[in-house]
Amino acid sequence: MTLLEPADTAPAATDTPDLADPSLYRSGDPEILWARLRARSPVYRNKRPDQEPFWAVLAHREALEVLRRPDIFVSGRGMRLDDSPAATDAAAQRMLIVTDPPRHARLRHVMNAAFTPRTVARLHHTIRATATEVIDEALERGDCDFVDVAARLPVAVICDLLGVPPADRPFMLDRTMTAFGHAGPGSADRAAAARAHTDILLYYAELADRRRREPAEDIVTALVRGTVDGRPLTDEEIYLNCDGLVSGGNETTRHATAGGLLALMRHPGQWEVARRADHPMETTAQEILRFTSPAMHVLRTAVQDTELAGRPVRAGDRVAVWLPAANRDPAVFTDPDRFDALRTPNRHVALAPGEHYCLGAALAVAELTVFFEELTARAELPEPAGEPVRAASCLIRGFESLPVRLRSRRG
Ligand code: HEM
Fold first, then answer.
1. How far apart are CA 192 and CA 279, in angstroms?
2. C-alpha 298 chain-centroid distance
3. What parts of the chain have a pLDDT lower than 50?
4. pTM above 0.90, yes or no
5. Nearest CA residue ID for atom 7, ligand 1
6. DSSP-assigned states of every residue in 137-191
7. CA of 104, closest atom in ligand 1
């Protein structure tokens, strides 16, 4: 099979698949499976061998219903299937993404304070400068793994947002790639990832100390100065929220970028549309988010008995919103499996509209917009240089590798 064929092999045709099984996403084309399950019911009761079952929300309407009701569907009891209960307890009501109302809005306000007009302007400068540098280097190499190419921009942006000085950025790139990259399932990789994560946590501690002495316009300064309910954040809360940014903003943006390129390669004519001088690239960035939906699921726990699509959800039930499935719902998106660089309107849920709407949404859109503006301006349509390998993960819809051949644009 070549890279240009539209789909990978079909997933196992069992009647009761476990959507949390990572192997489903390695070789399969899960869109077929999600469409089959969604056609039966927008909400699927996912049973698992030796584990608690969960509800998987596969349709757009019900996805919004869950995301917009943080009073019924809470985040503080775990943000992802298979997170360890100890990790959940350590972060709950401290790290933004697993904090529930009313504290959630107060903590979010502290973090939002970092996004001053000057900081946003500086971040935009970083995005443009890094994107051009990364693309120029990749064009010089020609053959490259695009998953690696796509890694550098998100790390640079998060370092800038955190206030990591330029001299320390290679260290952060190396440590975050090891800690949060898809290194594979081996135990040696897991040990290396744990060590890298410890290095990062120690680094946050240094950074926080420095910002207490020398405040700057960055998010660490916002965290060390901010108060919630009249109390400053503890060191642990500061490190957890730095970690939330690093883990939430890197892999997602990286795989959206890689998947965006693959979509442009596989859908004839779309590269040509995207490269036109007057093309609204932000529209394409939104379509990349819909089409790639790199955050595969977000988890909630029901705190009262309720109903979803007529199905009884009991207090204590876990509800996983399968974002890429909702983003292919034909009730909302015309021809949902087609990548349309000009799709409007585009009410995708890749950034979880609702109480926990992605804090980095504007940055993610800016990164994709600028990256593809620069890439289409500088390169011819990239060609496949091998088979893409999908990541075996039910958390991130992404790639282990995406080999491509890049050539500079002629004329
Ligand atoms: C393509 C890129 C991205 C995607 C697909 C994405 C997706 C998401 C999703 C689905 C959520 C909601 C999680 C939940 O409800 O449990 C979320 C929240 C969050 N994201 Fe992103 N994200 C992206 C980029 C970023 C970036 C660049 C940053 C940081 C600079 C970031 C930081 C966060 C944070 C801090 C939250 C928690 C917000 C809250 O709980 O109020 N994300 N993101």
1. 43
2. 11
3. 1-11, 183-185
4. yes
5. 351
6. HHHHH-EEEHHHHTTHHHHHHHHHHHT--GGGHHHHHHHHHHHHS---S-HHHHH
7. 41
Q: If you measure from the C-alpha of residue 48 to the centroid of ligand 1, how many angstroms do you get, rounded to a whole number?
A: 27
Q: What is the pLDDT of residue 189?
A: 80
Our answer on whether the CB atom of 364 is closer than 6 Å to any ligand 1 atom is yes
State residue 325's pLDDT score.
98
Secondary element (H or E) of residue 274: helix 270-275
Strands 403-405 and 383-384: antiparallel
Residue closest via CA to ligand 1's atom 11 equals 358
C-alpha span between 163 and 206 (Å, rounded): 12
pLDDT of residue 8: 40
Report the CATH number of the 24-405 domain: 1.10.630.10
pLDDT digits (tens, 9 = 90+) for 173-212: 889 888 887 544 455 688 898 899 999 999 999 999 999 9
Cβ atoms of 252 and 396 within 8 Å: the answer is: yes
Domain boundaries, given as residue ranges, for the chain: 24-405
Which pLDDT score is estimated for 4?
Answer: 35
What does the pLDDT read at residue 187? 54
Tell how far the Cα of 245 is from the centroid of ligand 1, in angstroms.
Answer: 8
In the prediction, which pLDDT does 182 show?
A: 58
- Ligand 1 atom nearest 99 alpha carbon: 40
Cα–Cα distances (Å) from 30 to 105, 155, 163, 322, in that order, read 35, 29, 39, 11
Supply the angle between the helices 187-213 and 235-266 in degrees, to the nearest 10: 120
Tell me the C-alpha distance between 388 and 201, whole Å.
Answer: 33
Q: Is 294 in the pocket of ligand 1 (CB under 6 A)?
A: yes
Q: Which residues contact 159 (CB under 8 A, 6 or more apart)?
A: 168, 169, 172
Q: For tokens 């394409």, what's the residue? A: 284
**Confidence (pLDDT) at 188:** 63
Q: Tell how far the Cα of 360 is from the centroid of ligand 1, in angstroms.
A: 6
